[in-house]
Amino acid sequence: MKDCWDWQAVPAYAASNHANSGRTKTIELQDQVAIVTGAGQGIGLACVLKLAEAGANVVCADINGEKAEQAAQAAKSLGRKALVVMADLGDVGEISRMIEETVAEFGRLDIIVNNAGVTRRAYIMDLTEEDFDRINRVNVKGVFFCMQRAATEMIKQKSGRIINIASIAGKGFYGTSNAIYAGTKGAVLAMTKTAAQQLGQHNINVNSVCPGIVFTDIYKGIIEADAKKTGKTPEEVQAAAVATVPISRGNEPADIADMVVFLASPRARNITGQSLNVDGGLVPS
Ligand SMILES: NC(=O)c1ccc[n+]([C@@H]2O[C@H](COP(=O)([O-])OP(=O)(O)OC[C@H]3O[C@@H](n4cnc5c(N)ncnc54)[C@H](O)[C@@H]3O)[C@@H](O)[C@H]2O)c1
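Above: query sequence and nicotinamide-adenine-dinucleotide SMILES. Below: predicted holo structure tokens.
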């Protein structure tokens, strides 16, 4: 179809869109192969479903094999192929195995969503060396080596999309779970920029999505810790947090997955090195 920038093409473009108006889903990623890390629940699971809806075959990687299996079944129920990889994404050897198993099964790798992440709610003075190592291991080391090992395949193919799930914590969000976590997400934002600059020559786009408040288990843990500390109910704590969001609502995991599918799609071909907030306006940039 001719692009809409040619004004003479507008009537034909509009007619064609009208003819397609019965379609509710856009199949933009037909037969592409996508890895989602931390696929077993929350934002990762939503990414699996939305990528599968958009036509992709999906590799569901998680340290929890049972949940990864459930995610893969969900992708299959949408008519796609799916592979389960049970792996600890803080371990470089496991990351390499995940990439190898993907290529052995599907012969290629088009998209990786580096989503697996960990944290705990803690005041800066209560954080320990164990916290530092545990959180950095998954959130920074894991994301870096997932990018690097995925890029090994994408460079051969001369195309690829790397999408990192960072956080507005990396941009100074005051309500973040802890200072170490904020540091890991800041590191993801910095690595995204450099990776985009260095991998662009291979037609690989690298971007981050920065979620705000998302109703998942990780967020539930934060709310419960705050409720315990303040003597309020989790519902009260959550309502107070949502009241600070300019658009007056938090995110469902699907809100983040929609941005991921967009960044994986041909529509985002010239977007790279960016960190895009999906936060209802909590952090201004
Ligand atoms: N929920 C939020 O409010 C929020 C906000 C900003 C950013 N994020 C980020 O979004 C991402 C997903 O968060 P979520 O809220 O869906 O969390 P979640 O805890 O619901 O899910 C995380 C998933 O990652 C998996 N995982 C954890 N450690 C792993 C490891 N070492 N190897 C493999 N898998 C592992 C878990 O088993 C789980 O399935 C994280 O990177 C998180 O930092 C979340």
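Residues 215-250 form one domain.
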